Amino acid sequence: MWPTQSPVECFARRRERLLTTLTRPCVLGSGIARVRNFEGNRFPFRAESHFLYFVGRHIEEALLCFDGARVTLFAEPPDPDHALWHGPSPSLEQLSISLGLEVRPRSEFVAPADCATLPPSDVESALWLEEMLERPVEAGNLSAVEVDNELAQQVIGLRLVHDEFAIEQMQQAANVTARAHAAGMRATRVGARESLVRAAIEAAMTESGMTPAYTSIVTVAGEVLHHNTSLNVMQAGDLLLVDAGAESVEGWASDVTRTWPVSGRFNGIQAEIYDAVLLAQQVAIAECRAGVRFRDLHRRAGRALVQALVEVGVFKGNVDSLLERGLGSVFFPHGLGHLLGLDVHDMEDLGDLAGYAPGRTRSPDVQERYLRLDRDLEPNMVVTIEPGFYCIPERLKGERFESVRSAIDPQKLELLRQVRGIRIEDDVLVTSGEARVLSAAIPKSRSELETVLDV
Questions:
Q1: In terms of Cα–Cα distance, which of 136, 144, 138, 141 is closest to 115?
Q2: Which of 317, 309, 316 has the alpha carbon at shortest distance from 272?
Q3: Which of 63, 153, 321, 339 could bridge to 346 as Cys pair (CB 3.0-4.6 Å)?
Q4: Is 251 helix (H, G, I), strand (E, B) or coil?
């Protein structure tokens, strides 16, 4: 099914909601296309997410101005020369009708006095916005401007909890991601390069009218958390970790990871570790509901993982004692998940303002320092749940590892080299009851994966 877009009323409603919270004018910039290696060769333009949330269209060098009770989009009129190379563009009048929004030439823009903004993440767009607003704008930095911090909190308040149109867009992205992962599983075979699988995944996204939401991770080196090249040859006995998600036409993301055996079957140690990771994820998803603190979910998943690894003989000792010693973080070093929305790590351009509730900060504890989210969950939040197990050589040596080595079965430790990395990740919609897994259509149990890979 070809992806659909949200109705004009959806964006009008979002703009009205922001207007009711504002105490001063604000301007949101769409950003500029980034040059790849010379002026005429640019990366595909993708508008800034805060702009997209209120407009839903990728319009380069546009300014969305909230001033009093009035909302105006300032954009460049179509350039006749542009049509020669890129095809016709809508007039400003046509754009106004299609967006349900007053649209005026950007040449008429005058920055409101004392206006707030949200800084773009790249330097070029920040410099452009600084020129437009005639005030300092520093890429990715809110800290120096109090009015921008106030606006950030207001926008976070809107974007943390998704409306029905955003959820529909994320479900569409998850559906396309399911097709993409299925294509990747079908393309997996011993002796081929990882790039063959990645190409199949991204081709399925393109065929469905979407793009990757982030740089796809398709690798047998699953112990490297963000392994962005796909050049290895897949060998019998390898596990292939695939972290790939589609982005909808309005910019909404999916973020899903699956790990499957290249030869079609998990071996003994791989099966034990995979089931332990899956159990940890199932525990977290079962308890993911409104009112639960996400940090507590992280701890429960970590405990479930350690308990399962004790039961299969990888770890030795009492679970509480092992957790106190930080053993779990040796193999599960990252946080359980993060916010998901228009950004794959939603609103992390604002630092920890979105991920951490007021009064909460990152813990220095080795088991929680990389936790990206510490809020009490609310209905219609969307989060990822993604426990993992990684046999990272650099973490299996040194003073810290020696302090916990006695709790690891030495024979099992040697076998873990056959695992390298396993991550299982889903996109989860929070409700007041049982969570809704947007990516539930993608096979996840060992039997499901082995059945698909056997076809």
A1: 136
A2: 309
A3: 339
A4: coil
